[in-house]
Structure formats: C-alpha cells, structure tokens
Design goal:
Helix 1 crosses helix 3. This protein folds into three domains: 59 residues, Winged helix-like DNA-binding domain superfamily/Winged helix DNA-binding domain (Arc Repressor Mutant, subunit A); 207 residues, BirA Bifunctional Protein, domain 2, CATH 3.30.930.10; 43 residues, SH3 type barrels. The chain is an alpha+beta fold. Bound molecules: biotinyl-5-AMP. InterPro entries: aa-tRNA-synth_II/BPL/LPL, Bifunct_BirA, Biotin_CoA_COase_ligase, BPL_C, BPL_LPL_catalytic, HTH_11, Transcriptional_repressor_C, WH-like_DNA-bd_sf.
Amino acid sequence: MNITVTNKLAQRLMEASGEPVSGQQLADEFGISRTSVWKHIKDLQEKGYEITSVKKKGYVLSDIPDSLEASTIQPLLKTQLLGKTIEYIASTESTQIIAHQLAQTGVSHGTAVLAEEQTAGRGRMARKWDSAYGKGIWMSIILRPDIPVQRAPQFTLIAAVAVVRAIEEVTGLRPDIKWPNDILVNGKKCTGILTELQSDADGIQALIIGIGLNANQEADDFSEEVRNIATSLKMETGKHVSRQELVRSILFYLEQYTEIYIKEGFGVLKLMWESYSTTIGKKVRARMARETLEGIAEGITDDGVLQLRTADGKLHGIYSADIEMEK
Ligand code: BT5
C-alpha cells in the first residue's frame, strides 16, 4: 500500500517530535493548499491522532492512536527494508493468507502484513490462534532469502530470537524460548511463530513468517481453551505496552539477524537461540503425529532440528513436535 498524503503528514508531525510545524510549511512540502492540509489534519484527528493547532506556530502532534497502521509504525522505524511496505487490514481471516497472496504478486523482501484482529488466525497444523481486536500483534513478514528449502526452519528460530530481543528491549521482561516456536514468559505462552514457504524448483520464493504476540490482553480476552496456558505482556508487567514500539523492534532485530545469517551463517544465531532456550538440557516429551518420544533434549543441529536422546542411548532428530517439559 502506498503511504497516502494523510499518512505522510502524520509521519512528518511525528518526526517533528512535539515541535509545531506551520500549515504553510506543510502545504509547501506536500505541494497542496493550506485548506487541504487542514482537511488531512482533521482526518488524522478523527482517526485518534491528538493534534493541536497552536496560534501563529502551527500544528503539534502530542499523541498517536494505538493502531498498527503504517503511519504509526514507519516514521520511527530503523530498518533498511523490513516494514518499508506495510499492508494494514483492520480485520482479516489471517495475515498469513494475505501475505501468501501478496508474495505471489511479487512484493518485495520485507513487506509486512499487520491486522488488528484475525477471525481465523492459525497455528501449526491448522490449530486456532486467538487474535483479539487491538490487543496483540498479528503480523506476517515476507522474506526472500536465497537459501535452500531445508534451511527454512532456521528462520523460525531466528524470528524467535528477534521477538525475544524486542520484548526485552521494550518491556524489560526476560522471555524464554520453547523449541521450536513458542515464546514464554513465566512459563506461559505469549508469542507463537509460524513459518510457511512458497518454493519451486529454483528453491525458496518466499518465506512467510507469522508472528502472533499477546501484548495487551487481560485474561478475559483469551478464549477458555487457552486462558490457562497463555499470557500477555500487559499481564506480566502490569502496564499497557506499545505495540508500535514492539513491531519496530521486531522488524529491526529480524533485519539485523537476517543480515548476520546471510553473511556469517547460523552459528552465532544458534548460540543466541540456545541462550534463551528452556528446552535444551531438559527432560522432555516430544509428541509427534505418529509417535511420542521421551528423553533429554541435548541441543539443536545447524538446521534447527532438535536432538533428543532417549533412555536407550539413541539420538533422535526431531523436525516438528509439541514439547512438554518436566517442571
Ligand atoms: C503457533 O502455533 O504458536 C503459531 C502461531 C502463529 C500466529 C500468527 S499471528 C500472525 C499470523 N497469522 C496467522 O494466522 N498465524 C500467524 P502452535 O505451536 O501450533 O500453537 C497453537 C496453540 O497455541 C493452540 O492450539 C493453542 O493451544 C495455543 N494458543 C492459541 N492462541 C493463543 C494465544 N493467543 N496465545 C497463546 N497461546 C495460544
């Protein structure tokens, strides 16, 4: 989606950091009339932007709405590519579906799809993902790394580290990662990651990284099925958290780590992942489609495969499973 003049205006006022910008200056910069500037300002005010008009000085932006629209995310975004195009939809079945469609139309690396609500948010194996309106981050990022298909699962791990770093930075909490895709705070799930891909004979065409992060829910906002296992950052910190800051921070770290990965490979990122993991070194039960194995989770391979040693001494490579850990 192209950023409209209204969004660009919001961006300009955000970048002014509370300093007034005159109507004439805005009119000149955007090549529009002052009346037109005023109309765009009114539009923004209706959307929840707090803009006051200071006599003889200009417009001052003092607050922005708690929304995930491009205009609220992009002005302070510190990335080169990720999130430079944001497709925002207030309500959608699943941002994964939109991202898959967009990826097929050839959109660029780093395009992000964001929604306030998903009516059919999904986890792995078609499980449901609770996505209450305005309370979380429901985001799918399209990446186009030049890597072989079997390396795709590494991106689930890389994305997990990026999300953990962002949560640490914005809230000060210290989350853990449960292999492969759960981020826990105090033992409860606050984020899930779903990596899907489009590939052909030439390899990966697009990775679609779905991130579902519970930001500002109260217990009542979760469905009964997940209420006991889920948590939100607000429930853990007691404070409303900025979804906009979190999105910017996730995109920033994901971009940094993708660069490290392309230049140096998975090694350093694997170490980072291990440092946040609660799974490694623990006795775990791995439930898979056909069997359940119990043993010690010894580590992950360079391809992100979990190494599980069972009591008979055999080492098993687990590609995908649900993990239960002993407390
Ligand atoms: C995941 O699957 O954890 C991946 C979730 C990915 C969601 C994002 S949101 C943006 C994008 N668009 C989508 O449609 N999806 C992605 P899995 O490991 O299969 O875990 C699913 C399980 O987590 C469910 O069966 C529930 O038990 C639990 N669950 C559902 N909603 C939850 C929530 N909001 N918070 C915590 N746990 C939840």
